[in-house]
Amino acid sequence: MAQLMLIPLLLAALSAQAQDGSPEVQVIAPGKPNGQTPATLVIEPAAMFIVACDADGDGRTSRTELDDCVRRSFAAIDTAKTGALGYIAFADWQTRWLGDQGALPSPFEVDRDGDGKITETELLAQFGKLFSRFDKDGDHAVTRPEALTVRTTAADGRGPVTGRRGGKRDSAPRTGERIPGGKPGQGPYLTNGGVR
Question: Where do the coiled-coil regions begin and end (predicted)?
Answer without folding.
Answer: none
